[in-house]
């Protein structure tokens, strides 16, 4: 009987997971993905004005999405 009581005391208590923890983790992952996309766009070099315009539009979209997350 005494052994059972000490075993119960030795078990770690279950900690409650914050309800917003999953949402915060998802926002963090999304922010990291957008930052990586931003870096790839910034690293692109092109002499084509059409491609440059597309990259600028993509960068503007990424920046807008980043600001909405933060």
Question: What does this protein structure show overall?
Answer:
There is one protein chain. By secondary structure, this protein is mainly α. The chain has one domain (20-69). Helix content is 76%, strand content 0%. It has three helices and no strands. It has helices at 2-10, 21-43, 49-69. Helix 2 (21-43) packs antiparallel against helix 3. The radius of gyration is 24 Å and the shape is rod-shaped. The chain starts with a helix and ends with a helix.
Keywords, separated by commas or semicolons:
3 helices, 70 residues, rod-shaped, mainly alpha, 76% helix
How are the SSEs ordered, and which strands pair?
Blueprint: H1 2-10, H2 21-43, H3 49-69
Short description:
By secondary structure, the chain is mainly alpha-helical. It has three helices and no strands. The longest helix is centred in the middle third of the chain and has 23 residues, at 21-43.
Can you write the helix and strand succession as a string?
Answer: HHH
Mean pLDDT, to the nearest integer, reads: 85
Q: How would you name the oligomeric state of the polypeptide chains in this document?
A: single chain
The main sheet comes to:
none
Kindly give the count of domains: 1
The helix content is: over 70%
Radius of gyration: 24 Å
* SS-derived structural category: mainly alpha
N- to C-terminal separation? 54 Å
Instruction: Count the beta strands.
Output: 0
Apparent shape = rod-shaped
Q: What is the count of helical runs?
A: 3
């Amino acid at each position: 009987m005494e052994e059972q009581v000490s075993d119960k005391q030795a078990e770690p208590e279950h900690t409650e997971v914050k309800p917003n923890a999953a949402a915060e983790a998802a926002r963090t992952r999304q922010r990291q993905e957008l930052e990586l996309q931003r870096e790839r766009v910034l690293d692109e070099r092109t002499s084509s004005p059409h491609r440059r315009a597309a990259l600028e539009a993509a960068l503007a979209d990424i920046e807008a999405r980043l600001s909405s997350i933060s």
